[in-house]
Predict the 3D structure of the following.
Amino acid sequence: MTLLPLLTLLATAPQPPSPPAYGIELQAASIPMQDGVRLAADLFVPTGGRRGERFPVLLEYLPYRKTEDQADNWSFYSYFVTRGYVVARVDLRGTGNSEGRLVPYEYSEIEQQDGEVLIDWLSKQPFSTGNVGMFGISWGGFNSIHMAMRRPPALKAIIAVDATDDLYQDDVHFMDGILHVDSWEMGQDLRNLVPGAPDFTLDDAYFRDRFDTPPWMLTYKRQQRDGAFWKRTALKERYDAIQVPTFVIGGWYDGYRDSVPRMLQHVKAPVKAMVGPWHHSYPHDGWPKPQMEWRNEAVRWYDQWLKGKDTGILAEPRFAVFVRQSHPPDPKLDEVKGEWRWEDGWPIARIRNQALYPQPNHTLSATPPPLAIHSLRYVPTAGIEAGGPVMWWGDVAPDQTPTDAYSLVYDTEPLAEDLEILGLPLAQLRVSADAPLANWFARLGDVAPDGTVTQVAGAAQNGAHRKSAESPEALTPGETFPLDIEMHFTSWVFPKGHRIRLAVNNAMWPMLWPSRYPMTTTLALGGPEGTRVQLPVVPPGTRPKPTFLPPATDPKPPAFLEAPAAAHDEDDSTVSGYGEISRVERDVATGTTKVIALNGGTSRFPWGTRRYEESITHTLADAHPEAASVAGQYKYTLTLKDRVLVFESNVMFRSDKDNFYYEGFRRLTKDGVLLREKDWKDTIPRDFQ
């Protein structure tokens, strides 16, 4: 790693971040890999500078079809380009407009080897100073972390937004060690099949390298326990692998926020971090509000490490956190009340754990209780509200009262004063089950005086993983044992007059796959190792506050990159890449519940119209928790000037007591005539799931 010495940087007077001083030009590139395959890239290059001027390069490396995003990318990247950075957007091998066989799964060795070649190539171009940074949200944040771990010489700094350091526990395939079937996971199989715009070429290479490749989902669902497959890129296993400056950004309503405190604490390279009130989105257009212009902070970060300018960013505290004030449980919440605060890093020395103990009368207090046992009947269809509208540990969840009705619930008395927490609350349970497998869920709620309950934090634990997620063990029915559930990273101020609630149960369907056995579980209260919850309490006091710029107004793209116009139909339910719960159907006579999630929308491009339709149906009966199922139907309709292409994919994933069953079907038609169809069927033994 070649960086200006830190002492030299600190000895100079801080400078403001690079101002907008350049124009922007889009260039196409075809970048050769070691095996001759060429990856398609859009290069957004500064114009109007000195003859022969060179710039640092920022790389965003994704499977998400750069060409259809060109207009949006022009506007988004302009913030960096006008301030003296080249931005390269590259399609992964076998996706979008890149050549080659589709990569076999997320973050594969093939993807990362290609990434090293990309970084080297970008560092050696005539426009480049030789210094490369990476950035991105979600996939782009993940592979920024992964490439930093591989240490290509030209990579000098990264910014990872909404990403994680632990693929097994945090990613969308097995959340908290429990199988999750994700809207993205099923739908990406179809999105991978669509060839690059605007030509949408359907030749022999397309069918061989894309249409006929196995579904990624089959690979993930065979890896049901932690181990080498997940650890191959898990930073959590080796934090010292990262030696370049790293800026991590998370959101309180995003499922990947836990990595922020872990990376702050354990990465030894220079680290900055920020957590704000957003879901899975960039902070300048994040929801809920307030938004902020994170790209200004990014330019300061890259100026520091890629241009050798002291911007003062190192003299500031390392962690900017938005402290949430209480809000109602409204999935359509527009803005979160709270305030920004600087913290020096993680852990925060002044935070103190406060233990609260469930009592036999279902209150929650600081006094250890007498011995007692509370029993709970397992209701497999419970937990719909706890998973939120897109069914993961993110977004604003609805009122928790319906899920709490099937939980063991413990409330404090109304608070005499405000109480702030910041961190990962820890539920220390003593539990048992009369079945060999069971999952437990612990949630922290804010109970308002009107009885509504806002979810503040929560997490799950696969009981078979109580000792190890790599070497699961069945439960001994009737045996009581300790089970710690570290809830996901949170910030909250419980107001005076509200109550704090601990809720414990055994299901959060359809977010997490149900345990297969009917059962009753118990929770043991009292005694030296009795159930309790540890709250990370922040004492009253003042801290310095950061000042961030409001979101900038991005320029409109040029006419030749006219942005696609959305043409929403009445049945559209457009969300950011995820099916959102549309309705819940309960059959009281059979005890069967169906949860239906929808997603879709129509966009118009210069080359034609693209319509996406997605429908997901989760089905489960309380009497048969072993027999859960999810069916996904996906459809892309491309209406081009000379033809209509329809790509379809149906996925059925179901289980019985012993196995999971996958059935996948693909179809492609041109002007109503079938060109290709293919199906997959597989039986996957349940492995402590």
Observations:
- The radius of gyration is 25 Å.
- The chain has three domains: 6-177+226-316, 184-225+564-689, 352-538.
